[in-house]
Each structure stands twice: as C-alpha cells, then as structure tokens.
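Why this split exists: single-chain examples teach little about how molecules sit against one another. For that reason, every record in the complexes split bundles all components of an assembly together and asks for one structure covering all of them. Below is a record exactly as it appears in the raw files.
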Amino acid sequence: MHNGNCENPLVPGVVKVIDIKDETSDVKSFFVKNENGVPFNVMPGQLAMVSLLPVGEGMFSVSWQEDQEYLQFAIKRVGLMTDELHRIEIGQKIGVRGPYGNGFPVDECKGKDMLFIAGGIGLAPVRSFIKYCFKHREDYGKIQILYGSRSYDDLCFKDELFDKWPKEKDAEVYVTIDNPEEGWDGNVGFVPSYLEEINPDPKGKIAITCGPPIMIKFVLKALEKMGYSDEQVITTLEMRMKCGIGKCGRCNIGSEYVCLDGPVYNLAQLKKLPPEW
Amino acid sequence: MQILDKKRLENALDKLAGTAEVFLPVKKGTAQSGFYSWKTFDKEQDTLMLDALNVLLPPKNVLFPQTEKMYSFKEEGEGIEITGTYEDSKATIIFGTRACDAAAIERFDDVFLTRGYEDTLYKSRRENTVIIANACYEPGQNCFCTSMGINPTDPAAADVIIRDTGDAYIWEALSSKGEKVTGTISGLLESREVKLPELKSFNTIVDYNGVAEKLKNMFEHPIWDRLSQTCQSCGICTYVCPSCYCFDIQVKTRGNQGYRFRCWDSCMYSEYTQMAGGHNPRGDVKERFRNRFLHKLEFFNERYGKPLCTGCGRCIAACPAGISIAEIISEIKEADTDA
Amino acid sequence: MKEIGNKIREIASRLFNDGQVDIFIAWRKGNVDYQTKPYIAKSIEDVNNIVFDEYSIHVLSNYLLKFRDGKEKIGIVVKGCDSRGIVRLLEDQQIERERLYIIGVCCPGMKDPLKAMKDHSGLTEQIETTDGLAAKCLACIEPNPVIYDEILGEPQEPNQKGERFAQVIEIENMSPDERYKFFESTLSQCIRCYACRQVCVACNCRGCIFDEMKPQWVGRETSVSDNLMYHLVKASHMAGRCIECGECERVCPVNIPLMLINQKLIKDVNEFFGPYEAGMQYIEGAIPPLSVYKEDDPDNFI
C-alpha cells in the first residue's frame, strides 16, 4: 500500500512527475516515479487516487506500471482538479495513494483469446490489460483490439494503436472514429456497430470493455446478441469517488463499493447490481 | 447491585471529567439538544437531558466529528510535503447514550474498522472512547428499535450500562474499559438491591422481518415514485441520523499551506454522485431517496449482516415533509411485488 | 377549517374530472392528530386523502420546483405566505402561470406539526406547549392569498402586531462587537445540513453557489468563518426575494434564528429600494429590486 503514512490510508505518498505526453487535445499521459522507496505494485485494472494537494484528489485507473520505473496515468481534462493537473510541469511533485480496487482477472483469463473493446478515454484502463497480455504473450491466445473515439484527434495512445500493437504476434487492431474526416481512411462508425460488423467469435474468448456509459450499454447488448455468455464479458465501472477505501459511501452501486469491491465486474455480477451507473 | 445515587451524579461526572472528556446529552440554552462536553456545561443556560428519552442530535459527532482535519501539507517550489496528520487519541467518555445510538456506533465500527482498510482517524478516537449506555425502559412516540433487532434494556457495544430507577442509577460494568472507569468513581457507588424498571410497550411497531430480502427485488418497483414525491432532499434526515456516515473530503488552502479535511455529507444532495464529466447516476430525487432507504434497510444488511437503521425515530420527528422510515418499512412489507 | 377541507376536496375532484389538472398539491394526514404532511394527489382516487386543518403550515409552492421542467397541469392549495411563493416563482420564471390552478385559502394562522412531532418524540424538553400558533404565524403580515383562481375562507387580519422589526432593531442597536458575538454564537451551531436552502422557495437556482467547486466560494467546514459566510451569502442572495414564509427557521434542526437575518434584509431593502415587499402581487414582467440596476441606486451602505 503506497501512501505517505502507512498507518492512515487516506494520506497520499509523494511522487515526482518525470514525463508528460499529450495524447489528444484534452488528454495527457502523466508518468510518475515513486520517490520514497516504498514499492508500488499495481495490477492491471487497479486504480490510484492522484492528488494535487492544494486542489483536490481524483481517482484514475493506472494505465500502465513499468516495474518500479514509473506509473502512467492517462487523464482527461474535465473538471476542477484535472484542469489544474494539466497545467503542471515535469519535475513537479504530486500525491498518489493506492492501489485500489480489484483489477482485471489476469490469471483467470490465461489461455483465452482476448477481445478488448474501448471508447474514448476508456482505453486507459483497458490498455493496462492489453500491455500485460503483450508482456506475457505466451499466456494468452489471439488478441483483438477494437477502439473508437469521436475524432482522429481524440484517439489516445496513437503510437501504440497504429505502430506497436498491430505488429505484435497474432494481434488485430481495429480503429474507428464517429464521423468521416479528411485524411482518415479507416473505419467510420460507432464502436458497437463496428463490433457487430467484425463479429468476433465468442468461442474461448473473453471480452473486456470500457468507455462512456452509453457505449458500454450498447456494447453489452451487441456482445449478448453475438452469443457471448455473461461470464465472458468484463467491464470496469466508474463512479464519483472520494475516499477510495470503501468508507465514505459515495461510490456505491447497490451494496458494493466500486472503489473497493470493483471497479472490474463481469456481466453476470453486473446484472445482480441495480442499474445505477 | 452497584448504585449511583442521582444526588451524586454531578460529583461522578466531575470525577470522570478528570480522566477524560465526558460527552453527555445536553440541551444548550434554548436552542439545540445534542451530546456536548461536561466541561462546557453552563448551569445557568443548559439543561441535562439524561432523564429525557434522547436528544435530537446524535452522539456520532464525538467519534466522527462534523468537520475533521486529516493532514496538512506545505508547498515549496516543486516539492510538496505532508507536514502532519491529525489523529485524536484523547480519552473520551460518551455518557448516557441510548441503545439505538450505541448500536449505531457498533455499525460505525463495522464500516470504519473492517473490510480492507482501517480508518485510522476513527480508530484512534474509538480505541480511547468508553461508552456508558443508558438503558431505555420507556419508548418514545417514534421509537422502534426492537423491530430493528436492538435491545433497549441491554445496549450492545456498551462498556458500562446504567439503569434509571427514579432516584438512582444501577451501575453495571461490562468490559475492562468499563471496569477501569468504574474504578474512578467507585467511592461514589453504594451497594444495595433495587427493583429493575420494566420495559413499557412501543407505540410504533414495525415488522422488519423479510423486508431486506424483499427489497432485493424491488429496485424498479413503482412504490419509490410515490414515497419520494414529497421529499425535498433537504438532508436533515442524514444529519440527525446516528448511523449515517457518508463524508466528503475537501481541502482548505492559504497561500502555500493547507490541510485536507473531511466533513459530513448527505446522499440526498443532488451533486452527491455528480461526476466531473457530467454524468450523474442519481440525478433525480427519487433515485437518491431509493438509494438512501435501500442502503439503510438492504445494502448494509447484505454487506454487514445488520440493518443500518437502529429505530431511533429522529428522522421521523425532524422531516419537514413528514416522511417516516417506519411507515416505509411497513409499506414495503405490504407491497405487491407481482406487478 | 373542516368546511374548507371539504371544499378543497370538491374542487380537486372537479378539476381531475374535467382534466384541468394532472396533479394536485395539498396536504394529507399522518398517523397522529398533530401530523399533517404535504401530499401530491395524482388522480381522483387520491382526493379522499386530502385534508386541510390547523397543521397545514407547509409552503407548498416549493413543490412546484419539482415540476418546473415538466408540462403537467398543477392544482395547488396555498395560504398567504405560500401564495407569495408562487408569485416569487412566476417572477423568477421558474414556472408558467397557465399551468397552475391556484386555490387560495385565507389563513387564520397554523400550528407547527414539526414542533409537535419533536415535542412528542421525547427528543426535546417538553416545556413549551404545542397549542399555540407557530412562531412564524405570529409574525405574519399577509395571511390572505395574493394570487388565486378561487378563494376560500373569510379574509383574515394579520397576526403581526406592534413593531414588525423589533428584534432586528434590538440587534442593530448593539455595538459591532456585541453583534459579532451574537452571530458567532448562533451561527457556530450550524451543522450545514442545507435544509434552509432546500425548503426555501426563493432558493431556486439549478446550480447553487454552495455546490460550485470551480471555484469553491464557501468551504464546507463547520468553522465559525465558513458558517458565517454560508449564512451571509445565502441571506444576501435572498435580499429583495425573501417572502418571509419562515420555513427555513421552522425546519432548522438546531434552531438558528434565520428569520432575524432575513428580516434585517427585508427591512433594508424596504428602506433603500422600497417600499417593497417581495411577492405581494403578480405583475407580469416585474423584477425584484436587486435584480435591476439603476444609476441612482442608493449606495451609502457600501
């Protein structure tokens, strides 16, 4: 558990921002390095609470952990804290506490074919699992990645999408944007409809999806139509979070706290929860 | 039996206040009633409410203050430093709390001390708090604690139980913390036999049996439209409730220094689940209302094995729209779920 | 009162029958005789539940805000204070006049069911009896409805006698230090439950300043400074708009004398921009005095 004071789980630890990369016009990747020597071990799909101490805190999925070298967060500028965060410079110190949440079931998915479906900033959490699969390539079967965004500019992690991942062994990458654009000769259309077009075979496959709530809802419908069972479909949810440790009550869906028991759920578990996300 | 004569009560409180900060039910001036410290008791203005049924504001502010500092920080150039954490571990006694409120503290222990993480702010207060509970024999108009599984004459989570026999209290220490506190006032206790009071009957009777199970399938039930109609989402219910624990975390900065604090929050406010991106899963009063009652009666039960509502009746007395959780439980019990 | 109750049920039935209303906002009885609660009847079958008695104190015009985005036709029963609330909402353009069918009742003053509930609950020391009129009714200056489609009951005399702003003047006469001490002691009790904001008819902003985080105008700590800021900012927002219905003070769980602050502002607005009483008359297009800028506005208090 990484925090400033190992006793109090609400106090963050200090990390240094070692790099900032522009992904889109409103998404930046922040690479932070742990300064205090306490190892920070995040599994794909887990979350961390990033604090700009004088401003506020926000819960973000860890997009990737490169051993003890850095943690990467892909953060979209939407509110008070993210606005301020987008203004900081390399070398600045911020607070991070975590990891929180249950993470993706990386062990249970071993040996399966993987289908990753993401929209917009939803690629950030899913990417942690994608990279994990590529890092442990022999443990997983065929990998298919379907990603869509509003426009070309809004596509995150472009270098991996177009240069790195298509070159990986037994991997297919499908990218789509919502509306036609000059200079784009790839697919045009929403993610759920593109998914139905591609029609990936459900046999032996696990589908992981994340994106705007409306996209998730349509993707789940499409997957069901294509014959995926509830246990084959996994998603990661988002709710407003403050404490991150399942105490403040805010992020509950039914009797579950998304920060503690989630945010990763398979469709069978999701169907048991009230539809309040 | 060990007896504390009421004539010696103030003496006892003074003695206890010498070892810890004693919080007891007091009416401050003509204004509000709640749990306040004995050392701020003003004989001219305030009234001790130990003989009254209870007070409007619950004792949760002793263990879980309305506003609580968490940690302070300082910015210097590119660096930030956490300069201190606030953990309050001074000795505290909650004197004269009723079974419903003591049971609420039990539920707070479940929330803050179990499941993954221990909330150290709560823990340090709780470990140093002794609960002296006042057994209850005369239920009030809106009380229904027994329906929620609470025993009013034997409050759970109590270190000492006092029983009011009219002119004295029977004093019963139940734990080692309780014995220690008893030791402080042992000089004021006498030994004699008195008759135990009898528990009178309840005005409000609620059948909670099976309600939690039933609620599991009532999320989309039309009953919530009707029940939530007159709710103004004012939040009074959550603030007078002894077992409501939702909190907000905010920051206070001055120049390059500041501190983070937490404060009470209410699930009834419209921006409770408002996300920065604009999406609000519970933007409607009905959705928040439903979530509150499901949390009290079903979700908490599912997670911790007991209902979060302890039947104290404060929300029933304080709601401007006259919404009553006891009535809601009865309506749910009778609701037709075949529709 | 029973007669008025009967008439209201008659009118409500007629309105539902003729399709003139989709919902009807009035009162119903609780489980005990001192409990009357707000009620929204949705069909003619619900009309039987409607009552009107001496505990019908609630300002029902606040419930109109729940329907401001809809299209339902709404029947509503109002007394003096809550009819001013309707004028308030019409002036703030929160609801359209055509959607409302207003039944005005001349009000003799009401008893407070909330106080009765609290006194009978055992949670307060039962030293005050619950037989008297509610505190806010004793200060009432307009018991007769100021806007209505139908009116019931005999016109009533206002209950407010003597110097209307007596308590305000008492505090105005204190030295600044004494005044600060007074407000510090009353407002430090505030637990920031925001109930006063929720029950206030004039508080109808969709995005409330106290919920705003970018920037955060008033901190959420219950420190004296944050509490003072909350109450002063809220009262200033109410200046020229408060209809003196007294609901804020009635529902406050810690008995803060909110009407004192509101009355000071009413007195000031009357003196500087008046004579003006909020919500007394519905004139289409009328705007509260502090929502209008005039070059000759008094500014000697700045």
